[in-house]
Amino acid sequence: MSDALASAGVIVAGVLILRYELYIADLTITVVIGDFVIWQGVTLLPRTVRLLMGAVPDESEFDRIVSDLRDAEGVADVHHVQVWSISEHYRALEAHVVPAESSLQAFEDVKARARGMLETQHAIAHATFEACLAADCDPVMVPGHQVEKNQCQDHDHDH
């Protein structure tokens, strides 16, 4: 779109120069196009930096994501939540989920519902969930988002 507008501006300036010898039109359109390119670059810079740095959503959005996951049917708790941008419009999530039921089928149902909720409410297109027992919680891994539904004990374990 911006290339088309710049091309149209150059054509208009060319016509003004050829027909009316308004050489100032060349300078004017050059300044306008230059200003537009600089404005676009400056407005895109914050999003570009966030994308390149793999930035997470802002704190309030992260809190809503964690809260919505904890409130999902069949979820006893959520911890070790990580959200990052893969591209400008594609975000991913990884989380440890303590299922309310210990059946594999119940956990698969929980994952399907959670993925649907994340995509529709938070624009998270890819989510990976790891099931873990409440006794395996380590709230230190997600500072400020300690376990609310179940109080877990600190211990050493690998994931």
SSE layout and pairings?
Blueprint: H1 2-20, H2 24-52, H3 59-71, E1 75-87, E2 90-99, H4 104-122, E3 124-131
Parallel strand pairs: 2-3
Antiparallel strand pairs: 1-2
Features:
159 residues; alpha+beta; Alpha-Beta Plaits; 2 domains; three-stranded mixed beta sheet; 3 strands; 19% strand
Looking at the structure, what is the overall shape? Answer: rod-shaped
The average pLDDT value, as a whole number, equals 83
Rg (C-alpha, Å): 26 Å
H and E order: HHHEEHE
Q: How many structurally independent domains?
A: 2
Specify the CATH homologous superfamily of the largest domain: Cation efflux protein, cytoplasmic domain
Describe the overall structure.
With 159 residues, the protein is an alpha+beta fold. It folds into 2 domains: 2-52; 59-141, Cation efflux protein, cytoplasmic domain (Alpha-Beta Plaits, 2-Layer Sandwich), CATH 3.30.70.1350. Helix content is 50%, strand content 19%. It contains 4 helices and 3 strands. The protein has helices spanning 2-20, 24-52, 59-71, 104-122; strands spanning 75-87, 90-99, 124-131. It has a 3-stranded mixed beta sheet, covered by helices on one side. Helix 4 links the parallel strand 2 (90-99) and strand 3 (124-131). Helix 1 (2-20) packs antiparallel against helix 2 (24-52) and helix 3 packs antiparallel against helix 4. Mean pLDDT is 83; it is low at 145-159.
